[in-house]
């Protein structure tokens, strides 16, 4: 039964990755490229060279991502690399299949804004499912995992270099619109993902050791707990303390309630952490 659920989950995730890359490819070929804009990251470099030399964006994207996939395999695991490889390959396929022409609008400002938003949605879907669309996403994810920095801001800083390049090779006005598009992408998946935001969870339970063991095994997170006494019931309790990233909340809640459905859970936003905290995505 568990194996069957595992396969269904994998099928759904693979379908999600394909949907995310299809959305991203649509945004690139229907809004960004026709307006002579440039997206962020490795894909942006590929689009820049497409405008300059006519080289295929999809093929360039695959070639440039090979060393980055090796980096991802070393630091982020097999599942991440597997889904990212699928994402990079399917993006190349969809970029080949979707024709490059205007759709909805030929207004460059609208193309920059909505091209950026739609790209952000596609990227977010892939990231949510444990992969990435390659390029700077891999580098940002490694940095965010080990240094707890904001992925959207990391990407925005790196993409500034691409904006400067577009301003140099094309019209400075194009660079300004490109910056708007990249910012829209960055803000969209920063809001949709909210991966790096951390929360402190405090659990009051009468099954402290069971709940702590379940969290440790399921979440790979450290838990601190101490004994307490209920002021109203005068019964023995344990208070558990754990820090997680926002995206883990639903799994943590399910894990706690599976061990003690009467547990009391309090969640507090956490801005800073000093000490050993592994950024798990």
Report what the structure shows.
By secondary structure, the chain is an alpha+beta fold. It is 64% helix and 11% strand. The protein contains ten helices and four strands; from the N terminus they run ααααααααβαββαβ. A four-stranded antiparallel β-sheet has the order 2-3-1-4, with helices on one face. A hairpin with a 6-residue loop joins strand 2 and strand 3. Helix 1 runs antiparallel to helix 5 (108-128). The two termini are 27 Å apart.
Element layout with pairings:
Elements: H1 2-32, H2 41-53, H3 57-76, H4 78-97, H5 108-128, H6 136-147, H7 151-169, H8 172-193, E1 198-205, H9 208-219, E2 224-229, E3 236-245, H10 249-259, E4 264-270
Antiparallel strand pairs: 1-3, 1-4, 2-3
Features:
alpha+beta, 11% strand
For the report, how would you describe the main beta sheet?
4 strands, antiparallel
Give the termini separation. 27 Å
Placed side by side, the strands forming the largest sheet appear as 2-3-1-4
Q: State the shape.
A: elongated
H/I helix tally: 10
Radius of gyration computed on alpha carbons: 22 Å
- Percent strand: 5-15%
- The unreliable regions are none
Structural class: alpha+beta
Order of helices and strands: HHHHHHHHEHEEHE
Question: Quaternary state, please?
Answer: single chain
Q: On the 0-100 scale, what is the average pLDDT? A: 82
Give the % helix. 55-70%
Counting DSSP E segments of at least 2 residues, the number of strands comes to 4
């Amino acid at each position: 039964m568990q194996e069957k659920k595992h396969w269904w989950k994998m099928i759904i995730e693979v379908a999600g990755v394909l949907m995310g890359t299809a959305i991203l490819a649509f945004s690139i070929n229907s809004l960004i490229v026709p307006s002579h804009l440039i997206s962020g990251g490795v894909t942006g470099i590929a689009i820049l060279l497409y405008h300059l030399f006519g080289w295929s964006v999809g093929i360039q994207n695959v070639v440039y991502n090979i060393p980055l996939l090796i980096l991802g395999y070393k630091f982020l695991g097999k599942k991440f690399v597997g889904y990212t490889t699928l994402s990079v390959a399917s993006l190349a396929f969809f970029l080949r299949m979707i024709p490059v022409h205007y759709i909805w609008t030929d207004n460059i400002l609208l193309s920059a804004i909505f091209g950026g938003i739609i790209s952000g949605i596609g990227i977010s879907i892939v990231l949510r499912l444990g992969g990435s669309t390659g390029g700077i996403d891999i580098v940002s994810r490694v940095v965010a995992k080990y240094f707890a920095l904001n992925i959207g801001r990391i990407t925005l800083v790196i993409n500034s270099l691409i904006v400067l390049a577009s301003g140099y090779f094309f019209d400075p006005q194009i660079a300004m619109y490109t910056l708007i598009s990249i910012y829209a992408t960055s803000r969209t998946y920063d809001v949709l993902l909210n991966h790096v935001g951390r929360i402190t969870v405090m659990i009051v339970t009468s099954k402290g050791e069971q709940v702590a063991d379940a969290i440790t095994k399921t979440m790979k997170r450290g838990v601190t707990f101490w004994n307490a006494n209920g002021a109203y019931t005068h019964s023995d309790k344990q208070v558990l303390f754990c820090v997680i990233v926002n995206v883990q909340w639903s799994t943590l809640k399910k894990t706690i309630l599976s061990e003690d459905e009467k547990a009391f859970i309090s969640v507090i936003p956490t801005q800073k952490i000093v000490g050993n905290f592994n950024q798990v995505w």
